[in-house]
Amino acid sequence: VQLQASGGGSVQAGGSLRLSCAASGRTFSNWYMGWFRQAPGKDRDYVGHISWNTGRTVYVDSVKGRFTISRDHAKNTVYLQMASLSPDDTAVYYCAAKSSAERDWRYWGPGTLVTVSS
Length: 118
Description:
- It is a single chain.
- With 118 residues, the protein is mainly β.
- Helix content is 0%, strand content 55%.
- The protein is built from no helices and eleven strands.
- The strands form two sheets. Strands 2, 4, 5, 6, 9, 10 and 11 form a seven-stranded mixed beta sheet that branches.
- A hairpin with a 5-residue loop joins strand 4 (31-38) and strand 5 (44-51).
- It is globular, with a radius of gyration of 13 Å.
């Protein structure tokens, strides 16, 4: 499984940005695709995930109502739409994948940097 995140960049506070994660290497039925982020000097944190099959999403409280995860079956791509960004959202964002039978996130892509300026 290969994951490639893209779409990071610099944005001003209050702005929006959409990240993409292109997945390849297998079919992803019964898999979850997740987003994580790591701010400078901090641990990597969970942001949210989506069920590849059902599209059901889960988010950490700090991004609810601002971030939206979606997926495109035809493109094998997962998106993280981010709105109302604040400097606290500055981080390297990673996408990850695991099967529904696994507890831990097994596959990780290289991160993409999001910088939010005030």
